[in-house]
Amino acid sequence: MSRIFDNKFSRRAVGVGLAGLALTNLDIKMPLAFGHTSAVKRTPEERFRNLPGYDFAPHYIEVTNNKTGSLRMHYIDEGSRDGHIILCLHGQASWSYLYRKMIPILVGQGFRVIAPDYVGFGRSDKLASDTDYSYQGHIDWLKSFLLAMNMKNVTAFLFDWGGHFGLRIAADNPDFFNRIILSNTLFPMGPQERSDEFVNWAEKIVKQPVFPIGEMVSRGVFKKLSLDIIEAYDAPFPDESFKAGPRTFPMIMPIAADRAGVSENRAAWQKLSNWEKPLLTLFSKRSAETEVPPSKFQNHIAGARGQPHALLPDAGFFIMEDKSEELADRIVDFVRL
After folding, report:
1. How far is the C-alpha of 158 from the C-alpha of 113, rounded, in Å?
2. Which residues contact 239 (CB under 8 A, 6 or more apart)?
3. Can you tell me the distance from the alpha carbon of 131 to that of 29, in angstroms, rounded to the nearest whole number?
4. Contact call for residues 126 and 107 (beta carbons, < 8 A)
5. For position 193, what pLDDT does the model report?
6. Is residue 264 assigned to a domain?
7. Is the dihedral of CA 326, 330, 333, 335 positive or negative?
8. Bridge partners of 155?
9. Kind of pairing, strands 69-78 and 310-312?
10. Which of 96, 135, 249, 323 has the highest CB neighbour number within 10 Å of its CB?
11. What pTM did the predictor assign?
12. Of 293, 259, 232, 317, which is closest to residue 3 (Cα–Cα)?
């Protein structure tokens, strides 16, 4: 996630996040692979009660990667079991709450919407140590989720880190998706324009004593969020010990030559040039002009040619907060082409 903010730290900095609700935290010791244990934190369910606009029933499934063994991953699952699946993946500083306004619209059109929380985010399990997270680890957890859910030929809406993970999975496992929609994302493949600037910003914000979550989202929208919405984004993180997942995101992105995932993503990018299934870009006009231009995808991926791509005005980076109805309508039209 790059160039989101409009204030200090080169227009990307955020203020101190909200402390959130003062409820009891839950630490669990779970056995992991290779005979060791790590603290797994599980946000109390009480923190998700009465969140504005969010009355979806929670669903959980076990996921694994080659380091952490079995963990509990949360997902929203709304709509007819027989409906075509639209998979919605969130980004940094957010969780499935981001899709609360789009889901009812898509369900009302007959679709089934599934929106997971990555490990370390939302209602999913959270590992306490920064070293428990890696770029490949997140890809493996997400692939484990898709396999466990028996997903095949679904429409994937990939926002921000959803694109970082989802495009890699699409290149290596094309049967998961029959359509892809990209929104305010990029595909990191080592040093790119402004990589050094992003790394410097990331180091500053990660070192803050309080890592902002809801405030980060509020600074990345066109119309600032109300306090109750900011608090809802903060709900999964009762205190700083729950935030290893979002804290590590900037430091595991493959944007430096020596970071893990660079060579694998470059290979995936070459495969994606031959992706002929429909691919649509729906970016905010502001992000396309100053942050993450969609033209790279449109020019490189075969399935993007001739699609009704759009730049949405009056929308910030977290485009779902500003343009939920238009996004949902465009998704419906795209799937029914």
Report:
1. 13
2. 19, 20, 25
3. 16
4. no
5. 55
6. yes
7. negative
8. 86, 179
9. unpaired
10. 96
11. 0.88
12. 317
pLDDT tens readout for residues 261-307: 999 999 999 999 999 999 999 999 999 988 778 999 999 999 999 99
Closest CA to 288 of 298, 278, 302: 298
Identify the segments of the chain with pLDDT beneath 50.
Answer: 1-37
Q: What is the CATH number of the domain that holds 330?
A: 3.40.50.1820
How far apart (Å, rounded) are the C-alpha atoms in residues 101 and 47? Answer: 20
Domain membership flag for residue 61? yes
Q: Calculate the CA dihedral of residues 160, 164, 169, 175 and round it to 10 degrees.
A: 40
Give the model's pLDDT for residue 199: 65
Q: Work out the widest C-alpha separation in the chain, in whole angstroms.
A: 52
259 residue type, one letter: R
What are phi and psi for residue 319, nearest 5 degrees? -65, -25
Query: What is the 8-class DSSP label of residue 277?
Result: S
- Those residues whose C-beta lies under 8 Å from the C-beta of residue 297, and which sit 6 or more positions away, are 182, 187, 279, 281, 304
Q: Please tell me the total count of domains within the chain.
A: 1
Helix (H, G, I), strand (E, B) or coil at 283: strand
Strand 154-159 to strand 85-89: parallel, antiparallel, or no bridges (unpaired)? Answer: parallel
**Which residues constitute the domain of residue 311?**
8-335
Question: Do residues 331 and 86 make contact, with C-beta atoms less than 8 angstroms apart?
Answer: yes
The amino acid that residue 137 corresponds to is: G
Look at residue 161 and tell me if it is in a domain: yes
HEC per residue, 177-240 = EEEEEEECCCCCCCCCCCHHHHHHHHHHHHCCCCCCCHHHHHCCCCCCCCHHHHHHHHCCCCCH
Domain annotation covers residue 3: no
Which tokens in the block code for residue 117?
């929380």
pLDDT tens profile 71-86? 999 999 999 999 999 9
Q: Which two tokens stand for residue 324?
A: 């939920």
